[in-house]
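Next up, sample data:
>
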Amino acid sequence: MGTLPASAEEAVARLRREVGDIHQELVRYRLVVWTAGNVSARVPGHDLLVIKPSGVPYEELSPRDMIVCDLDGTVVDGELSPSSDTAAHAYVYRHMPHVGGVVHTHSTYASAWAARGEAVPCVLTAMADEFGAEIPVGPFALIGDDSIGRGIVETLSGHRSPAVLMRSHGVFTIGKDARAAVKAAVMCEDVARTVHIARQLGEPRPLAQADVDRLHDRYQNVYGQPGAAR
């Protein structure tokens, strides 16, 4: 175990509270069951991340349980073992410097699309707003090393979607911070469910690319209050 730099202590303490608390949003929106799923956040100004411990029930999580790791996934501070997905999160942070938060869920409808190895087509204005495109499918990869992280980065690099469906696994989302990544996970499940239902009635009609571009630009740059999170 490494030593937490004194200059990072304040930011780490804040993120331990934030990351610990925001896991409850995964429960609230029914994106996880039992101990599956995780949220992490990059520590600003440091090559560190804060992530959920492995196998701890959501109702028992507290800020002190959150684990601090470096961007190789090595534990720097914390008494418990980090999430089994830590290597994937760390790889994303190493290779996508604009990312400040990563979320993983096995939410039902989105994971059903992942099981089929099928992207969720952009057929809703809400999808254009949040994702700016289809929600893509990443390659199959096993837990245990950074293979999942590599698949996430390869799939999302150059793509407007903050969400990827890892084949036969589940959802990974990215954001400027942990809350933005959680929002993307919530929206991913919502549109995956809606498009699934639409397909029971017929084939959904894709949006024109020009409309997708206009909707995405408006939502990202105009919608909401100035300075407020979208």
User: Anything to note?
Assistant: Residues 6-221 form a domain with the L-fuculose-1-phosphate Aldolase fold (CATH 3.40.225.10). DSSP finds seven helices and eight strands in the chain.
